[in-house]
């Protein structure tokens, strides 16, 4: 049975955000956040979440964006080791090359 509205005995806990992920590998691997309204039943204390219409979460980041965020603060030595190893994907290596290229451009402009 699908209910569209909370039970009459439920009380709104207000707008909250819940993280939704399609995998659990890293503790911060949330694909996106969804805006929901939380209702708690006064009698049985059951909690229900209802999506707020028109408020979709952040879109899932692309693989390139995820890799960029993962490696953007890594030291140059580590990034160069990634390029030398065979067990990293071509996509990962392309992102690492982009990061190293951006850093070398910044260094060149600062002189």
Structure description:
With 111 residues, the protein is an alpha+beta fold. Helix content is 34%, strand content 23%. The protein has helices at 63-71, 76-84, 90-109; strands at 10-20, 32-41, 47-51. The N and C termini lie far apart (67 Å).
Architecture blueprint of SSEs:
Elements: E1 10-20, E2 32-41, E3 47-51, H1 63-71, H2 76-84, H3 90-109
Antiparallel strand pairs: 1-2, 2-3
Helix pairs in contact: 1-3, 2-3
- Number of separate strands: 3
Q: β content, as a range? A: 15-25%
What string, H for helix and E for strand, traces the elements in order?
EEEHHH
Q: Which percent range fits the helix content?
A: 25-40%
The global form is elongated
Rounded to an integer in angstroms, the radius of gyration calculated over CA atoms is: 22 Å
What do the pLDDT scores average to? 76
- Ranges with pLDDT <50 over ≥5 residues? none
Major beta sheet, strand line-up: 1-2-3
Biggest β-sheet: count, sense, barrel? 3 strands, antiparallel
Helix/strand class: alpha+beta
Number of helices: 3
Give the termini separation. Answer: 67 Å
List keywords for this structure.
111 residues; alpha+beta; three-stranded antiparallel sheet; 3 helices; 23% strand
In summary, what is this structure?
With 111 residues, this protein is an alpha+beta fold.
């Amino acid at each position: 049975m699908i209910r569209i509205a909370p039970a009459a005995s439920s009380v709104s806990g207000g707008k909250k955000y819940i993280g939704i992920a399609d995998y659990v590998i890293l503790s911060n691997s949330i694909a996106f956040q969804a805006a929901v309204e939380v209702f708690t039943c006064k009698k049985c204390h059951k909690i229900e979440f209802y999506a707020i219409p028109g408020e979709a979460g952040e879109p899932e980041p692309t693989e390139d964006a995820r890799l960029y965020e993962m490696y953007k603060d890594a030291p140059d030595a580590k990034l160069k080791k990634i390029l030398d190893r065979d067990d990293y994907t071509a996509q990962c290596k392309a992102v690492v090359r982009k990061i190293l290229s951006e850093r070398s451009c910044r260094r060149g402009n600062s002189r």
